Amino acid sequence: MFDYKLIEALAMVSMEGGFDKAAKVLHITQPAVSQRLKQLEQATGQVLIARTTPPKVTVAGQKLIKHYLQVKRLEDDLSRQINDSGTREFSSLTIGVNADSLALWFLEAVRPFLTREKVLLDIRVNDQEQTHKLFKNGEVMGCISTLEQPMQGSKIEYIGRMHYHMTATPQFAAHWFPKGLNAENVQHAPAVIFDRQDSLHHKLLLNAFGLKSSNIFAHYVPSVEKFADYITQGLAYGTLPDQQSRPLLKSEKIINLLPDFNVPVDLYWHFWNLKSALLDDLTETLTGFAKLFFKIA
């Protein structure tokens, strides 16, 4: 039988990014956190966390954290059933969301859920092609991802599709692409890319011209709002999803540089296969809104 007080210490070190921060959350000293991890590693006979900066959880440690969070989720659900709404404590749900979804529709989707439930969301932001790694490692209870297949011990719901287009201001295009965007001039103009994990820009250029990522110059701007500003202020060309580009195209602030090409991105909601009323409620609220949103969009 595991001592969940010890596993909780491991989870907090991982989630908070250090021993000192975990100690503050647990209201104990940093040596006490270290002692609990030492006891847990002795009990399991395995190294559970590498003492790096920040600490890195091993595969065995990830499995223990995932188990702990699932048990905690079920205990929280039971507590909600036993206690009436007036005396309930806040529950916490940790989820992975891609930056575009968070900026463009996620808050509106979950607002009804947050209004009717005493719940706090701990959102981990990553690229839509990377969020499933957070889920696989047990760091989040659900995630929005491009992964089409459910992972072990999980369920999956289709959310919708986002189309990404290559855009720029008319003035930027006239200066850098006077004869239209082509395989030659695209290698000399400044692009804007979200971060080094973002492959959408490269996919569009690969589809249109067969160009690889090393052939372009790029700003890296990991902010959805400022990313769009780089484009609308004529500093770079880059990819924008339908939901963000449509009003800008309609007002003629930007143009579509490659009207015959786009990158479709299908999004899926992955969540633990648990009998959790709160997680089921979040899933129903999130997917219901998203499907309507993407249908209209």
UniProtKB/TrEMBL annotation:
One of its GO terms (molecular function) is DNA-binding transcription factor activity. Keywords: DNA-binding, Transcription, Transcription regulation. SUPFAM superfamilies: Periplasmic binding protein-like II, Winged helix' DNA-binding domain. Coiled coil: none annotated. InterPro entries: ArgP (IPR017685), LTTR (IPR050176), LysR_HTH_N (IPR000847), LysR_subst-bd (IPR005119), WH-like_DNA-bd_sf (IPR036388), WH_DNA-bd_sf (IPR036390). Residues 2-58 form the HTH lysR-type domain. It holds the Pfam family HTH_1. Transmembrane segments: none annotated. Belongs to the LysR transcriptional regulatory family. This is LysR family transcriptional regulator ArgP.
